[in-house]
Fold each of these.
Amino acid sequence: MKDAAPSMVLLSEYRAPDWCVEHLDLHFALDPAETRVESRIRVRRAERAGPGAALRLHGQDLELLRLEIDGKEPDPDSVTVDAEGLLLAGLPETAVIRIETSLRPEANTALEGLYVSGGSLCTQCEAEGFRRITYFPDRPDVLTRYRVRLEADAARYPVLLANGNRVDAGELPGGRHYAVWEDPFPKPSYLFALVAGDLACVSDRFTTRSGREVALEVYVEHHNRDRCDHALASLKRAMRYDEEAFGREYDLDVYMIVAVDDFNMGAMENKGLNLFNAKYVLASPETATDDDYVHIESVIAHEYFHNWSGNRVTCRDWFQLSLKEGLTVFRDQEFTTDCTLFGVKRIDDVQRLRAFQFPEDAGPLAHPVRPDHYAEINNFYTMTVYEKGAEVIRMLRALIGRDVFRRGLDLYFERFDGQAVTTDDFVDVMAEVSGRDLGLFRRWYTQAGTPRLSAGTRFDAETGVLQVDLAQQTPPTPGQKEKHPLHIPVRLALLDRDGSRLPAQLVDGPEMSTPAMSEWVLELSADKQSFKLHGLRKAPAAVSWLRGFSAPVSLDAGQGTDELAHLVAHDDDAFARWDAAQTLLRRAVIARVEGAIDATLEAALTTAMAALLEDSAVEPVLLAALLELPSHRELMESFERADPVAVDGARRAVEKAVFAPLAERLVARTPDRKRWDDGAFTAEAMGQRRLLNRILALRVAVGAEGAVAEAARQYREASSQTLAMAALAAVNESTDPVRGELLADFERRYRNDPLVLDKWFALEAGSQVGDGFARLERLLEHPGFRWPNPNRVRAVLGPFMAQNHRHFHQADGTGYRRLAGYLEQLDALNPQTAARLAQPLTRWQRLEPNRSAQMRAVLEQLAGKDLSRDLADVVQRGLAR
Ligand code: BES
Ligand code: ZN
């Protein structure tokens, strides 16, 4: 391997920087073939550092043309060149360092540092991309002010952008021009960005609550200029929301968003100049689905919210990544809940958490929300750091209360403005404002693994006391054999026969008691604990556990079918109601996988679903969610080891058994297709379309009469992509020739529209019908397929692994071997994307013995190859038993 033993970075070895950078001046002579970068760094030795302290400048794949210290060439003995970059010794207390480097943006397929996308030059610096541009202390705790001069060909690159405010611009001889940008806010290097291109600018304005006028500018390729309205509207909503819900205001005169086609991630929060994967900017009703609209809005909001949670207050080191990402995900989730999706947002988020984060936390790549070692930081932008990190923040709020939490956030932003801090600093502030001991709570940051929560109740009719028994246990994870109890907030309520909530009094300890309420947050902080609810006249008909999913745990409350069905019918907490249905459906699938059809359970499910379909009080969007089965990924977690093809089969069989008898009721409950086919971005319209599409998918899946024909009609008549795509997805597993006709039509129509064409690639790659390997080959030979474009590669390999179980998990291991071959090929171009796509190959421990051995063998083979550090790290950790 290129780096035989990737060296570990350890949290315990963190040391504050010995040198501060007081100012940074960057001059770019931009050209795709060769770009020259001149950097002028003013440094000062930190007081704590001794006079002998050397200055570390990181650098990677750079050509060094010139190095000067205080105007002179340095003594060669004082300069060490190593794998990390440069080490300068013998510097005076303050010095000015001039460095000239040369880069080849055109040859940069890793898409980190300065690269070319669609004819524009652009940068991606998080986490450690700045070191591919110039030698610099490329660590988040070195903050400085930037002045950036960009120079380029005026015809090819009329637009020149960098962070902050443009302070100068002008013409130069030879058809070139320049612009100078100054960012008044000190920032770490990972937030640096520049863009040079021939781009259209779609603009708008926003007035902050204190009266600052902000220019909003979205830069896209000219032919996309009419697809920016939703992005701009989303940005304005996010800016207003951050003021109202979090008291945070924008701080520069301009906020720019640039869309690029080639991007490793979703988007990046560079100060004042966000870079976005085009798929999270561009939208029109014909080319984007409701889900796309919602994602765009939430990514725009997420990157905007980083301006405070990440940029104004940043991370001390990369172990603290969740400080900005977990908090910002929490903030964007709140935004989407309050502005767009309301009750169903929590359900979507829990679905994601269970399908992606729980498996990560149970597998070989498990790590704490705040990791304490890494070989490659790019591999730690994970579901755990992001989604579990957001859950930890949510639990904090549940424990200290909304108002105190908000005061804590205000204090956090005020106290640490302009600083690089830690997750401990964050919790300290919350402890300070709440006066609570959060010592045990901090373990959520350091202990990996999903806790298993067992819950039960015992009612004493004589005393009217309900005893609630809770117990927790976390399974071991790599490097953490011993687990300790966590501080877990368990929100619950008791439902009566008629579905109303029963009031009771929580008696907490011998004398402490609280007034009678109808919902409680029990705080479990030991292995086992009991609580008492007093004043009940009768036993509850059902216990509504973990309302709003108050903690990221897997719950076993041992509830029977009747109790769960009661919750499905009546629970007023949308999440708990949906979760009761999920538990029943999961049990039915597990029974089938284990070879024992539970006909009684399936019949009870049919009855419960029939009642929901009849109940006009259930909102369409919630009904759509209630009609969904747990995902394949989530179901795989229910077994120690499983055959993924069998799980898929059982899941489909349960779907059929439960819903086939409801074909007529499904039709009766279908929203009026013509009426809602308008692409309107409102909760009501999106909810109706979600239900419409879920019912169509169900009808096709159960083989209902005329369903395939109806899907074809819906596809042909659709004016919004939400309906067109759903129709295609509904027939994607059908053997009816209509599938091929519709997909071919879709390809013809959108051949030249990359974002839409990605969806065609995804449908084809994910379909299990016919010869999936031949189809995969054809996809890779399609004129639109490009290995250097991450969206396109992900569109093919992602669904092939996630949905095409029959081929990816073909028992002879063909699917695993094919994938490994593609990954090796991709790794040579784009290590980050290869490492991400390799993750499904680390799930071998959860497969039945034959496939497990096949997958492991493929990983072992990969481990023997010459891989990037990114991919090697995933492969090596993935092999650990
Ligand atoms: N800071 C990240 C982008 C990033 C991650 C850049 C890793 C480089 C390496 C950004 O704020 C982010 O989190 N983006 C997410 C989308 C977001 C809505 C969760 C992404 O890109 O997936
Ligand atoms: Zn982020």
Note: The mean pLDDT is 97.
Amino acid sequence: MQQIKKIGLLTSGGDSPGMNACIRAVVRTAAFHNLEVIGILHGYDGLIDGEFVQMNAKSVSNIIQRGGTILKTARSPRFMTKEGMDRAYRQLSIENIDALITIGGNGTFKGADVFGKTYKVPIIGIAGTIDNDLFGTDFTIGYDTALNTVVDAVDKIRDTAESHDRLFIVEVMGKDAGLIALRSGIGTGAEAILIPESKNDIVKLFERLEKGRKDKASKIIIVAEGDDSGGAFKVAELVKQRFDNFDTRITVLGHIQRGGSPSCSDRVLASRLGFAAVEGLIEGKQGSMVGILNKEIAYTPFENAVKHIEELNPNLLRMVEILSL
Ligand code: F6P
């Protein structure tokens, strides 16, 4: 087993609240074990360009509560090419970095999988994305905070919707997964939730709008950006074509969902995963993502973490219909 002395640390893909808490945990755990940490700026792009900064216990002071990522992030098309990966590997060799910790989501781990296998670099990934769309962890860093942001925004929208007797169609993020929509929809008492994991949602929505209680002043429909209906604007158009009795408005929450101070749950999760990533590398683990399953730390090979998606519990959707009567 190769002895690790110097770890390269990067954040990649969409930022998520709690990434900084995770960076802090990695750096401090490494310091405890007398390992050096080199921060790599701008994700894989920074690895290719050698944007390296020395990190120590002090450089991660006072960041646990900050949103975003102090290491910056990027989506890197260059890292998907052989030239890009060759250059990245050369930078690692010049800097004598023996292992990598990458905090991110799907795209981050696909890249890490190919890079680690091709150049024999030990890599541990940490599940950091608001989408919660990775297999091998019950929760990803940032998901809980994003949900709270959505709930806060929709509660405010409900006030104005109720005052005007309006129907609001609110689009939330999640890429091709509907987890943010489903959970925030339950949490805000939405009248309907449209998610990619359930088909023909628009037909069901029409039925609900037809049969729904007429004495309800406001209606909130949460639409996942990846839903097959085509998003909030499309849904609003279809509702307008079919019904003439709704005063409809659209809100696309967008990147507000990725910002803000992380919730306590995200800070704890981030701390646990950062700590486990470093200790995992020391124990010889590599080529896998660290997550939490049933409250315990779990390491899942990259290829499994990105290929599968947890099935949604159909009972939850049934429950939404009953509770929003
Ligand atoms: O993966 C996180 C995420 O916020 C998705 O929910 C969304 O589809 C995507 O990133 C947006 O990416 P960008 O910020 O690059 O537009």
Note: Residues 143-164 form the longest helix (22 residues).
